[in-house]
Amino acid sequence: MIHWSDSVQTHAVSTPEKNWYIGVAPSAIETNAGAETRLSTGDHAVSAKILHLDPSSRLCLLEASDTIEEVEPIEFAKAPIPCAGSKLHCSKRGSSCPTAIAGREYSIRGEPLSSPLLRVRVSDAEKFCEPGTPIVCENGKLFGILIETDSSVEGEAHAIPVCCIRKMVTEMERYGHTGKVWIGLVFEDESNTPQVVEVRPDSPAREAMIKPDDVILTISHRDVTNLDDLTQAMHTLIAGDEIEVTVLRGISQKTLTLTPRFAEAPE
Asked: Most buried among 18, 86, 184, 244, by the most CB within 10 A?
């Protein structure tokens, strides 16, 4: 558990990397990267430092001052983002409840999100819908983490998909910071077809030899049928990773190698 105050605690998920833990900071708690808090299980408690805090979702990465032996790291699922109707489970303190994916959200109450979320239906929402509650598949692999959001539908919540969590953890381990990536492609605003209008100079896309009029078919082995799919994929790309992009050029398909870069330098 993460102890944000004497009265506010939320679930923490242990990662295989170092003494790192993933959680969601409640909106009522004022905190930021670099702040200190506590982690505990049973009677064992250690201090922890917040390495990263996303201001939008409140997803955070914490580093414990010491190993908590009783906690087993959770393995991240590598499967694609589950589609609507997929069945998973919310897991909390040794128990779980059936959960279903209802869809994806690109904005909440009209406000665009920094990265898309999953909408989930939780069978026992009163017990399980707390910030930081993990969503797992049958073999216990992590598929997402619930965040603190209001929903107009009873029993419904929002979750950060594991691909976004993996991006944060990988980039923090590799670079000490995380953020949006840039590939340098421009698409037609009035069309939902992922057809390239422009390739920016000195961009990863130019280096990958993507050309205007190419239609993006897959990115990182994920099918892209429209710009929403492309947006979802873009938010999960890890800076510095070589990925495959399949494009339709004329009537032929070509597979190219693209290496995304950070959109902005760290402050």
From this structure: 184
Asked whether 214 and 248 are in contact (CB, 8 A), the reply is yes
- CA-closest candidate to residue 163, choices 257, 252, 47, 243: 243
Contact 197, 215 (CB under 8 A): no
Q: Could you tell me the CA-to-CA distances from 174 to 76, 110, 114 in Å, in that order?
A: 17, 34, 21
The whole-number pLDDT of residue 213 equals 96
Percent of the chain at pLDDT exceeding 90: 46
Q: In what side-by-side order are the strands of the sheet with 215-219?
A: 222-223, 215-219, 243-249, 252-258
In a domain, 72, yes or no: no
| Residue whose C-alpha is closest to residue 197's, from 182, 215, 179, 172 | 215
The C-alpha atoms of residue 190 and residue 198 are separated, in whole angstroms, by: 15
Pull the structure tokens for residue 236. 């999960």
Range of the domain at 91: 87-175
Contact 161, 88 (CB under 8 A): no
| CATH number of the domain where residue 208 is located | 2.30.42.10
Q: Rounded to an integer, what distance in angstroms lies between the CA atom of residue 120 and that of residue 145?
A: 11
pTM score, whole prediction? 0.89
